[in-house]
Amino acid sequence: MIGDLAHARVLVITGAGISAESGIPTFRGQDGYWRNLDPTKLATPEAFAENPKLVWEWYAERRRWIREAQPNPAHTAVVTLAERAGDFLLVTQNVDDLHARAGLPRKKMVQIHGDIFETRCSQCDGIGHDHDQPDEREREIAVCKTCGALMRPGVVWFGEQLEPRNIDRVEEFLAAGSVDLALVVGTTALFGYITDWATRSAGKLIEINPEATPLSRFATESIRAPAGVALPRLVDALCREGSGA
Ligand code: NAD
Ligand code: ZN
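A: This is the predicted complex of the input protein with zinc ion.
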């Protein structure tokens, strides 16, 4: 498929679909709505400006779901691939910590949309801590110790810019040599930068998603199956091929 894995440069891009089998709902799937609200409208600066308490309640609940969830076989397969590949980078749009809890070192991943367990100021560069915001208990929203504005989740909302240092890490990986395999798992790939990074690679582009996406027409191969089933199989095949078996 790609030859010797030990000498291959592999880029993996994941979205909410890889965590779906761990019980974390995607935004656009059947279970996406929360209290009859559309997550793609809640995860916005406008929603936070209008009703910060509601947005924080949603994030507090999602933090709880994520803490209670466990990585699934797809997250584990990504770790195996990272260990076997010559050079490896994961770009995840997920704000959960399941890739890290499966054992993937932070230096091999970029959380391009941030980390749900981080809290930061909605106005300045003030950084908070996990316990600084409302959780299960009804509490006032924490305010920034520097400027007094409301603290917000440390994630990238729809319509916001990506962190330049995160973009740089992806660009550095792409600039360091051609990519032999780009593997795109469980994302609707609606963001231009995701499609761009996936297709800029020179070699193979494999997509794992039960549904077709805008990326499908660029893919060398589309595997229409759940990530928890398809990814371990694919990684097994890549490892066997790499060992000459
Ligand atoms: P999305 O919700 O738009 O789409 C999920 C994709 O996963 C769909 O294309 C769907 O067909 C596919 N999918 C569903 N079940 C799957 C499975 N078992 N295996 C493989 N694929 C499956 O998610 P997105 O494209 O990642 O974008 C939405 C944004 O919402 C992202 O920016 C992300 O930050 C955020 N988000 C994150 C989480 C998380 O951290 N777990 C969850 C929901 C949303
Ligand atoms: Zn501040």
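The CA atoms of residues 27 and 39 lie 6 Å apart. Residues 121, 123-124, 126, 144, 146-147, 149 surround zinc ion (ligand 2) (CB under 6 Å).
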